[in-house]
Amino acid sequence: MLSLKGLSILLFLGAVVVGKPQFGNPIREDDDYLDYMNVVPQDPQDEVRPANPYDFVHGVKDEKSGNDYSHKAASDGAVTRGEYRVVLPDGRLQIVRYQADKEHGYQADISYENATTDPPQSAEYEK
Fold this sequence. Notes:
Layout (H helix, E strand, L loop, with lengths): L3 H15 L14 H4 L17 E9 L4 E9 L3 E9 L5 E9 L3 E9 L14
Antiparallel strand pairs: 1-2, 2-3, 3-4, 4-5
Keywords: Cuticle, Signal
Protein name: Cuticle protein
InterPro entries: CHIT_BIND_RR_consensus (IPR031311), Insect_cuticle (IPR000618), Insect_Cuticle_Struc_Prot (IPR051217)
C-alpha cells in the first residue's frame, strides 16, 4: 500500500507531466488568423490596396516647463506630408517639414528658430 508521502509524490509528478506547458510556434497557422492580420496575401493575383487617407494635428504647450511640441500630418493615401516642431534643450525651436511616398521615400527639410545661447530654466512645480 502506498504511503501518503508516496501518493503525494505520484500525484505531483502526474500533474507536472499532464500540466506541462507546450512551447512552439505562437502563430496560429491552422486558421484564418494570418489572413486576418494581412501577414499573408490573400491571393497573389489580388491588387494592392492603397493606404487610407488621413490627417491629424497634435500639440502640447506648457509655459511653466517650457515643453512645446506639435505634430501634424496629412496623407491622400499615396503621399504623406507633415511637420513637427520641438523646443530643444538649448532653447531653439526645431521645425521638420517632411514628405514621404513610395517613389522618393522620406524627405525632410529641417530648420531652426529662436537661436539663443542661454539654456532654458528648469520649472519648479508645486507638490
